[in-house]
Fold Dipeptide/oligopeptide/nickel ABC transporter permease/ATP-binding protein.
Amino acid sequence: MALQAAALAEADAPAESSAGPARLWLRLLRSPLTLSGVIIVLIFVVLAIIAPWISPYDPSAVSDTTLAGPSAAHWLGTTQNGQDVLSQMLYGARASMFVGIGAAVLTTVLSVVVGVTAGYVGGIGDEVLSLLANVFLVLPSLPLTIILAAYLPHSGSLGIILVITVTGWAWGARVLRAQTLSLRKRDFVEAARATGEPTWRIIVKDILPNQVAVIAASFLGTVTAAILTQASLAFLGLADVTQWSWGTILYWAQTGSALLTGAWWWFVPAGLAIAVLGTALSLVNFGIDEFINPRLRQAGIGTKKAQRGQVRAGRPRGRRHRTAPVPRPAPAPFTQDSTDVVLQVRDLRVEYVSEGGRTRAVSDVSFALRRGEVLGIAGESGSGKSTLAYAITRLHKPPAEIARGEIRYTAPDGRGVDVLAMDEAELREFRWEELSIVFQSAMHALNPVLRIGAQIEDVIVAHRPRMAAPERAARVLELLDIVGIPADRASSYPHELSGGMRQRAMIAIGLALDPEIIVMDEPTTALDVVIQRQIIEKIMELKDRLGFSVVFITHDLSLLIELSDTIAVMYGGKVVEMAPAEDFYRHPQHPYSQGLLGSFPTLGGPKRELTGIVGSPPDLRRLPSGCAFRTRCPHAFDACATKVPELLQVGEPGARGTLAACLLHSVPETTTNELATGETR
């Protein structure tokens, strides 16, 4: 399907030269099969419209020329009553096309409304709408169609359209609901929600464009099915047989024993017209699938080698070496009244609620983020890093729930805001204005069917609705220039960019409204080391230039040590060590941190054996008693099995040193929250 090919593709794709809508439509018609389908459908539509003016006879008029074969006077012969078959075919096209298109429109609209609403909104509405769709799915459609048609024998085409709509909408709604359920959890939908876009705009701009191929296939398939259903009902005599349609022609041909008398010209044209139109609609569907899916358009733009050349030609050619960094002041000590603290998290606990109980994914985490600071968060998969990021941005969804804690943002003017107390309207204003997020996978976080420039502009539209279009366009180009993407790439789709460009585009979206904080959830995942280096250099350059703070989440400790001011290591949902980056690198205090650092080879100095960490991360639903790391710790002793270590100061109290949650460093005078927030007893 187009949705799967466009939305799930991961590999860097060759670039396509920018093309306007007119050129894209022309490309749609370049396929001989698609062009043939479009021409055939248009011929049928035109003939149906002009039938009264070009029909040589009244389709119901009888004559003495009965059961005559095709001739100059009657191109398709006559019936047993001397009626002209060609005239009946032309008038029949009007009724059949009207039923097919009318039923397809109503059925598709009902399917989209029910399916997308149920899939995106969820909750009790989803359950009710899904139950309704399931009821219609299990009902036998053919008997139901026959019964309904029998009660509406003289309602004409409108009655047939109603019958087909009632019996045919549930399948399309079910498919669209399933697609919406998968899309609403995608990162680009989360990103749109995070930027403050209203629900209707997310559905229209992000959900529906990714389902156009499915909707188009459903519509064209319903046209064919409706024409066949109408013909079947008419053939069985369940429709108004006085109204000419292709099905009516077949009904009278069967009644007049056309097959037994050898009058093939009476029934073959109607059957052939239905078959040809169905084939043409299928060809059009294939063409629409290719046209809507940006990935499939690549088939018509040349060889792979030529495409790769276009990608290289579009990449920025600036210096690859890091420029001299702007000197940064040493981090200030933890103090509660420090004016440079922009985000303060205290005792944050996030739990996943299920029928089996509550599972703590983030347990009593506290930290302070300062202006212009990079706070690095590291840990193995399942340690709670991404859950913490989503909690900070209030993007978590059920079953995730913030059980307790405080997240306090301090604006540049000194005004403090409780993030957890914000309602939806306040969150919409807060996100991207003050705090933005760069998601883990740019290919998933970028909408595959929208151009890069349009996705950046969406953020601006959501928060600056009164900004004029020329100003928005200028801002988009400015942002692309800031992150080092050529201006002509604004019209490119995500798959047309390299992995590094896609990630820089995500950074541009995060910078669109000049936020004070950017949360970066593993922004260099799946990138090679050269591209990683470019991304990190760009992040540091922009941070020093624009002055925002960064919460940087990654598995890569060596990366964090290079770019972070402070590093927090998480294990089992808790912060087990927090320290200035240099101190962490030279003197890690927690055995888990030592194991992580021992897993990375050094580029210089004497060779050493990589030690790593034995075992696997714990299951958060069944954490070991006492210290969660004790089953993997080489220094564990008896007390570790019964006592949960607190995050305590290691070194001089009151100074900004290292905090470690290990019984090897037990300093009862200071508690974790007092140290993390600057309070002392």
